[in-house]
Amino acid sequence: MAFDAFALVLAMLALGYLFQRLRLLPANAGQVLNLVVLYVCLPAAVLRYAPRLHLEPALLGVAAVPWLLLLATLLAVAALSRWLPLRDEERAVLLLTVALGNTSFLGYPLTRALIGEHALPYAVVYDQFGAFLILSTFGLWVLAHYGGEHRPGAKDMLLRVVKFPPLWALLLGFTVMPAQPPAWIDGGLQRLSEALLPLAMLTIGLSVRLTLPREELKPLAAGLLLKLALMPALAAVLVPWLGLQGAMARTTVLESAMPSMVTAGALAIAHNLAPRLAAAMVGYGVLLSLITLPLWAQWNG
């Protein structure tokens, strides 16, 4: 299963990048596919697996890890700024791309492939109550602080959270959706959720830029080291302390090891915050994670 998933990841990444280079698809194809994933495939995956989640106190630990890693990111980037002469825009990119991982588009299908389908609900908790809320609060603040926008108020952040489709799917999954719905509903959700991996990887392939920013080589290397190695290592230290065990602990560590969130990189580029560094963090992070993620998936505590 894991080999098949990684073969599909590589194939769709390569296909998307080929389409990008040859300009075979419209310029906004990546944005359109991203919306399909966001509004259709991702909610279907959440709606299918959330009802199987048994609410228990340990889930608070799963949700707490990304917030603790956010604190570690703040400290690490601050320390890095003393070692490297980081520009403000480079600091902003590192804050976004180290704190925010690709915990949904890449995290959901690879959790299922590397750990098992039974672990997917834990990935949903990590993503929805961690990465998404961090993007909607801390991420907005970074963009406003370093990108010259007006600082978002509590209302702006709340509206962003409320308008996120997978959050509604999560609420429905916790309330009205049965754990074993009728076969025709479950079959439809399964087919839509299975489209998540190929469409997400095709979208990433259409979006990433692999041009190496030479003057930003050191920030890039430091950012990739933090995101792919040090943050999951810290998560591995935290999960026993938080009482997490088994698949719950393995999923938490694996989610923390995901490469940088594509949306975080795209937002940095859109706000003209070190765009080459942002693109390289996403592009090289995805490629390197094909090596690091299977290694972190073997962690057993």
Question: What does the model show?
Answer:
The protein has helices at residues 2-22, 29-49, 58-83, 88-99, 107-114, 120-147, 154-162, 165-175, 183-194, 196-207, 217-241, 246-256, 262-270, 275-297. With 301 residues, the chain is mainly α. The protein is globular and about 55 Å long. The model has no long low-confidence stretch (mean pLDDT 86).
Can you tag this structure with a few keywords?
301 residues, 14 helices
**Which residues form runs of ≥5 with pLDDT under 50?**
none
Secondary-structure-derived class: mainly alpha
Radius of gyration, taken over Cα atoms and rounded to an integer in Å: 18 Å
What is the succession of H and E elements?
HHHHHHHHHHHHHH
Question: What is the number of helical segments per DSSP (H or I, 4+ residues)?
Answer: 14
Distance between the termini: 23 Å
What is this structure's SSE topology?
Layout lengths: L1 H21 L6 H21 L8 H26 L4 H12 L7 H8 L5 H28 L6 H9 L2 H11 L7 H12 L1 H12 L9 H25 L4 H11 L5 H9 L4 H23 L4
